[in-house]
Amino acid sequence: FVCVDKGPSRAGIFDLLISKEIPFIDVGMGLHRQKNLLTGLMRTTYSPPEKAAKVRDSGWADLKSDPNDLYRTNIQTAELNALNACLAVIRFKQIRGFYAEESSILNLVFDLKDLGTVGETETP
After folding, report:
1. In which element (H, E) is residue 17 found?
2. Whole-angstrom distance, CA of residue 68 vs CA of residue 52
3. What is the biggest distance separating any 2 CA atoms in the chain, rounded to whole angstroms?
4. Burial (CB count within 10 angstroms: exposed 0-12, middle 13-18, buried 19+), residue 74
5. Which residues pair with 25 in a beta bridge?
6. Are the C-beta atoms of 80 and 5 separated by less than 8 Å?
7. What pLDDT was estimated at residue 33?
8. Model pLDDT, residue 5
9. In 3D, which of 31, 58, 32 has the Cα closest to residue 45?
10. pLDDT per residue over 53-91, tens digit each?
11. Residue 119 exposure: Cα atoms within 13 Å on the Cβ side
């Protein structure tokens, strides 16, 4: 599992795992204010060794740091962090054969505003 909030650190970790052909799951979160309320997306991305470089280059994970990211303002989002971790563990258990999966999702996005998810099986 890769769970870091600095894009350049994430990029270095990705490169190391890809070079060693180690599959991994990365999580990320992007939050912003809308009319003084929080909204945003949580992401869980699986990188199997044979597709990892393409997944890295897809743009799903932020590999640069955004100085304007609301998450960096020390906002307390423990429940969102916990939910993102749960989504990552569920995806891991699907990959390992514990939970059923309809299709092999590479990128799962949870939208806080409507509590909906979108799964992508191929890189853009």
Report:
1. helix 7-19
2. 28
3. 45
4. exposed
5. 46
6. no
7. 84
8. 81
9. 58
10. 999 999 999 888 766 665 555 567 889 999 999 999 999
11. 11
Give tens-digit pLDDT for 19-51. 999 999 999 998 888 888 888 999 999 999 999
- pTM for this model (two decimals): 0.88
Phi-psi region at 95: left, alpha or beta (left = phi > 0; alpha = psi -120 to 50): alpha
Mean pLDDT of the region 86-114:
94
Read off the amino acid at residue 97: G
Distance CA 15, CA 106 (A): 18
Q: How far is CA 28 from CA 35, 67, 87, in A?
A: 23, 15, 11
In 3-state terms the chain splits into helix, strand, coil percentages (rounded to 5) of 35, 25, 40
Amino acid at 1: F
